[in-house]
From TrEMBL:
Annotated organism of origin: Ooceraea biroi (Clonal raider ant)
MF (Gene Ontology): ATP binding; kinase activity; thiamine binding; thiamine diphosphokinase activity
UniProt protein name: Thiamin pyrophosphokinase
Keywords associated with the record: ATP-binding, Kinase, Nucleotide-binding, Transferase
Pfam families documented for this protein: TPK_B1_binding (PF04265), TPK_catalytic (PF04263)
Superkingdom, natural source: Eukaryota
Residues of the Thiamin pyrophosphokinase thiamin-binding domain: 201-269
GO BP annotation list: thiamine diphosphate biosynthetic process; thiamine metabolic process
PANTHER family listed in its UniProt record: THIAMIN PYROPHOSPHOKINASE, THIAMIN PYROPHOSPHOKINASE 1
Length: 291
């Protein structure tokens, strides 16, 4: 692990000066019984390795639900394993609001059946962008056209296993997200982690206590270009006016000294955090509501 030791008064002053621009992240909210904000849930064409009760609740609480190309088949097969017939009247809540993508990995028959069941289908054949990138554009347009949807967050099911170029492509989409959905937060959800981009400025991350108790891992990764100045509090190994870049310092295999983490950065940087305890304790949902 490469990282720096704890910060000092200069870090605290730097954060106090920017407190008005603080961005609050509460990554445990989506796993709670009651969502605290309006969010969209997107299913990409990636394996789904989630405890079904929790994922089904996430889907039901979402304001907008989306399957992307082959993700439509993934979602249907996932439901079948839970004994859920997507097209039966009693399970219509699991029909996606929106289906999008270039449709090269989803059968016309399936698309037709879901359209008849109520899904809005938008084909996006442009090959200069990934289906994930195009899906964010379409979600923003869908919410705007609906008129009464005010999305605060978008959660994207994106397992981190498999092809490395796909993993990096997904990270690249995070860097584009502000151009696609504005200030809406985009968080990638894998069965073992959450990953998102921190824009320049001060961020506060409320870490669920189950993760601090079990010393779950977290990291800060400077994709694309060096981060010339970054400081943190609440980590076991804090950064203090650090410069981060590949080939130099990166912060991996870090963990928590507090349930409140702050990150102050002058450059976009990727935050990633392990959530394995969420899978290991499926019957202890209330524990995730406490920060």
């Amino acid at each position: 692990m490469s990282t720096l030791m704890s910060g000092d008064t200069r870090d605290r002053t730097m954060q106090q000066e920017n407190a008005i621009d603080r961005t609050l992240w509460t990554p445990g909210d989506v796993f709670c019984q009651d969502a605290r904000c309006e969010y969209a849930l997107i299913v990409l064409n990636r394996p789904i390795h989630w405890d079904h009760d929790r994922l089904l609740r996430m889907w039901r609480q979402a304001r907008v639900t989306v399957t992307v190309d082959g993700g439509t088949h993934r979602w249907t097969k996932y439901l079948e394993k839970q004994g859920i017939d997507l097209l039966s009247n009693e399970h219509r809540q699991y029909v996606p609001d929106l289906i999008t993508g270039d449709m090269d990995s989803c059968s016309p028959e399936m698309i037709g059946r879901l359209r008849a069941a109520g899904s809005t289908v938008v084909e996006t054949p442009d090959q200069s962008h990934t289906d994930y990138t195009k899906a964010l554009q379409q979600v923003a347009q869908y919410a705007k056209s609906a008129g009464n949807i005010n999305l605060a967050e978008i959660y994207v099911l994106a397992e981190t296993s498999g092809r490395f170029d796909h993993i990096i492509g997904n990270i690249n989409t995070l860097y584009k997200s502000d151009k696609l959905v504005g200030d809406v937060k985009v968080i990638q959800v894998a069965s073992n982690s959450l990953t998102w981009m921190l824009k320049p400025g001060l961020h506060e991350i409320r870490v669920p206590r189950v993760l601090t108790r079990q010393q779950s891992w977290c990291g800060l990764l400077p994709f694309g270009c060096p981060v010339s100045r970054i400081s943190t509090t609440g980590l076991k190994w804090n950064l203090h006016d650090a410069t981060m870049q590949f080939g130099g310092l990166v912060s991996t295999s870090n963990t928590y000294s507090s349930s409140k983490v702050t990150v102050n950065t002058d450059t976009p940087v990727i935050w990633t955090m392990g959530i394995e305890p969420f899978q290991e304790t499926p019957n202890q949902v209330p524990v995730f509501t406490c920060y």
